[in-house]
Amino acid sequence: MKKETVHRILIDARELIEGEGKWCQGAYAKNGQGWPVSEFSPNACSWCLLGAILKLSVCENREITHEVVSLLVKALKVTHSGELVSYNDSPNRKQKEVVSLLRKAAKLAEL
């Protein structure tokens, strides 16, 4: 069950941020005017990498969230989760790169 839940969160996060205008930088989430809002806000229209994960894993236990983040760290080949924020917010980062990272982490979850 845990493995399937982790995989589902990664797939759902990819789907959440892959549409036009659905990914953001500099905040966990932003509203339609581009202002930062909580990732749980009904006014949120776009999410960063971690904002999407937090939004989707809120109903799960910390172990699930930790496993999702650990797979992202492994897929990115970095040493700690703080580097995920730097990755997402890099000025040259493209949405498709973040979507690709989520896809890669989802494949790791299948193993």
Number of alpha- plus pi-helical segments: 5
Question: Percent range for helical residues?
Answer: 55-70%
- Total number of domains: 1
Poorly predicted sequence stretches spanning 5 or more consecutive residues: none
Average pLDDT number: 94
Shape: globular
Largest β sheet strand count, sense and barrel closure:
3 strands, antiparallel
Determine the structural class based on helices, strands and strand pairing.
Answer: mainly alpha
Rg, nearest Å: 13 Å
Strand order in the largest sheet? 2-1-3
End-to-end span in angstroms? 14 Å
**What letter string, H or E per element, gives the SSE order?**
HEEEHHHH
Strand content: 5-15%
Number of strands: 3
Tell me about this structure.
- With 111 residues, this protein is mostly helical.
- The protein is built from 5 helices and 3 strands.
- It has one domain.
- Helices cover 58% and strands 5% of the residues.
- A hairpin with a 5-residue loop joins strand 1 and strand 2.
- The two termini are 14 Å apart.
Give the gist of this structure.
By secondary structure, the chain is mainly α. It is built from five helices and three strands; from the N terminus they run αβββαααα. It has helices at 2-17, 49-57, 62-76, 82-89, 95-110, and strands spanning 29-30, 36-37, 46-47.
What are the salient characteristics of this protein?
single chain, 111 residues, mainly alpha, three-stranded antiparallel sheet, 5 helices, globular
SSE layout and pairings?
Layout: H1 2-17, E1 29-30, E2 36-37, E3 46-47, H2 49-57, H3 62-76, H4 82-89, H5 95-110
Antiparallel strand pairs: 1-2, 1-3
